[in-house]
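Sync notes, pocket subgroup
Present: LS, DG
LS reminded everyone that the earlier model was apo-only. Rerun requested with 2-acetamido-2-deoxy-beta-D-glucopyranose included. Inputs:
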Amino acid sequence: MRIMLLCVTLLILYSFMESQSGMILCLTLLILYSFMESQSEKLQVVGPDSPLVALAGEDLVLPCFIKPNTSAVDVTVEWMRLDEVASLVHLYKDHEDRNENQAQPYRGRTSLFKEELQKGNASLKLSALQVSDEGEYKCLVEDKSWYDDITVHVTVEVLGSHSVITMESYDNSGGINLVCESRGWNPEPDVLWLDREGATLPAEDTQTHRDTEGFSVKRHITVYDYSDSNKFYCRILQKHHMMETEVIINSKVFGVWNWLVGISVSACLTAVGLIVTAVICYKKASELQKEKQCAEFKKKKKFAVDVTLDPDIAHPALILSADGKQVTLGDTQQNLPDTPLRFHFASVVGKQSFSSGRFYYEVQVRGKTEWTLGVVREDINRKRWIPRSPQNGFWTVGLRNENQYWAYDDAAVSLTLIEKVEKVGVFVDYEEGLVSFYDVESSSHIYSFTDQSFTKKKLYPYFSPRHSERGENSAPLIITAVTE
Ligand SMILES: *[C@@H]1O[C@H](CO)[C@@H](O)[C@H](O)[C@H]1NC(C)=O
Ligand SMILES: *[C@@H]1O[C@H](CO)[C@@H](O)[C@H](O)[C@H]1NC(C)=O
């Protein structure tokens, strides 16, 4: 470009000076230059459009070729590694490989495709990939009159070792501390703890360590006694790969923990008889667990909201109190207009809806033999009875036949509660996808739906007082004020 400008300037100058020879020289230069320019402008080196990903141990072809179709037999092809300091990976010059200065890690692992060179193909074959091969590579093609280069990014995936779950210790709160570990991954994987339904469990942050083998990961969790067979999974997740290890903890083990936790409480040391000690200790452990639950529960109460029932959409057989705080099922259907939102089964929702944040409310169920409570999505089917499940937009728990508690998860879960529930606390964290139920009197947890998706729809508090045959379930559901 500079030559061209110079020439044009000279041309103008020469034309003023009327110098014939100067003009001819300049024109020749111009023509020669534009010829060279057109030659070299057309030729370019082309590489892959996206980064290359390959598994460790495999062979990888790093593409690099000249466009349009030109032989590369006579050119110099230089492959370099760009990270940290540039190092020579492969050099082809004067019709042969010149690898005297090749970087140590690449010795004997590189080659060009000789028969492809005449087609302008300067791709590099790198054998037996290692994690350390990950990075940027430059393919530089140079001829006497031009040169061009491209950069290729290589990612080397390595699957780590099988994850190992270790039971580390008892937790003061009555749980068991587990840790899941796995080594030798690349790139860095995610570590998840799941319950037996596959829902993710809250765990500590993943600890990651990097060495020449790749990433080592470690994640701690405290698990509690949820059911008869407590099954937990540790899942290691990489872009294209997944690995899972499971651990099963028998309920009895948690029982033993409770005793042991108790024994570690120093007060026990002064106790006299062994049996007495054990009983005291057992109590202590469960008290600790309860205290923790209680503290958790108190936090939920901070999100208390005022809920009133919506008479305009209640099923016609439901009787609502004037203040909208109580509902019971009457014997007869009232003559009410059937609106699109009115329930065709004995249900009602609150006037208030929620589509973000956290909220909490309490409902008294004292004296009832059957009830269903929870939250529903705005778009549920209100006209036809469908199974109450998260899939159908219901996150509910309920009582049947006086003493059978159920959580209506995608498969209904039978709940074992020690005490009869008189007041239910319902807590929702919209963003977390969490719906939790509590026994308010004992401050204990009943059930939680975790990692739910509300698909950006509104949620309504849901109430069903259920049938009252022979008047035994006639007590109302009452929305009560939340007290600390
Ligand atoms: C590219 O060049 C090679 C060798 O000169 C030739 O055999 C081949 O037909 C050419 N291909 C195209 C598409 O021009
Ligand atoms: C270059 O040669 C390699 C090895 O034979 C081949 O895999 C690749 O497709 C070739 N590239 C082009 C553009 O022909």
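DG: The first helix runs from residue 2 to 17.
LS: The chain is about 20% helix and 35% strand.
Action: DG to write up.
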